[in-house]
């Protein structure tokens, strides 16, 4: 996944192997109509040594290829079109959570152990805004223990097969 400074996303044409395309499949249909989009991928590409434990992420060596870029190789989803549709957009990576806010990619959370300047802002290929209320990602993500997640109560009762409602 590549993300442009305008929030555009490329999931189909990889720069390192331009002769190979992944194809968009149902991606275009799903992203065109969803009210909230969450894109996920690594913050950088290439060989890296990233370790997690004790509720922290440690970047020993980073990938050399930026994935947040001035322009993407191919626009598979348009940030401008998404904004015109009122879509809420979040980009989740191993070290940061970012949102598209008024056409600006904004860092809203960082992983515990990550240095905002060194590991996020300096490694992005574009300027990023930082939320005034920057938060830490949940430390449970960076442990090998169960997170203890539970499903909440359904918003409305689910129908019982054969029961008339």
TrEMBL record:
Signal sequence, renumbered to the chain: none
EC number: 2.8.3.8
Database matches in InterPro entries: NagB/RpiA_transferase-like
Keyword presence, Transferase: yes
Keywords: Transferase
Coiled coil feature spans: none
GO molecular function: acetate CoA-transferase activity
Name of the protein described by the UniProt record: Acetate CoA-transferase YdiF
Originating species: bioreactor metagenome
